[in-house]
Amino acid sequence: MLIPHFYSVKEFNFTDNQLKAIIELNPAHDVFKGHFPNNPVTPGVCMLQILKELTQQATNTNLFIKECSNVKFMALINPEVNAVLAITIDINKVEENFKIKASASFDETVALKVNALLTQQL
């Protein structure tokens, strides 16, 4: 985990090239003290890192984000209000790379959608 104690994985199910996970953000983490004081918002780059880390866990491969496309931040994720997120990642291996189509949501609100290409990190 690049940012220790930033989130925890509550559920993790990977079958038929689809990962479904439930994570819980740590609203007391130092990241939220600066982003933003008294109005915490989960940084988009942290959400992308979480998706990468979950994909690594599912594929048992050390990965690097090579390319992101169609990145859509559709709702703010305030960890004090919505700490629990549902993550869905469709993972397809293409040669030495992994193409993912991912989303993160809370309640019935989709907060993030992204397509990305991850490559094996040597």
TrEMBL record:
<protein>
    <submittedName>
        <fullName>3-hydroxyacyl-ACP dehydratase</fullName>
    </submittedName>
</protein>
<dbReference type="InterPro" id="IPR054545">
    <property type="entry name" value="ApeI-like"/>
</dbReference>
<dbReference type="Pfam" id="PF22818">
    <property type="entry name" value="ApeI-like"/>
</dbReference>
<feature type="domain" description="ApeI dehydratase-like">
    <location>
        <begin position="15"/>
        <end position="102"/>
    </location>
</feature>
<dbReference type="InterPro" id="IPR029069">
    <property type="entry name" value="HotDog_dom_sf"/>
</dbReference>
<dbReference type="GO" id="GO:0016829">
    <property type="term" value="F:lyase activity"/>
</dbReference>
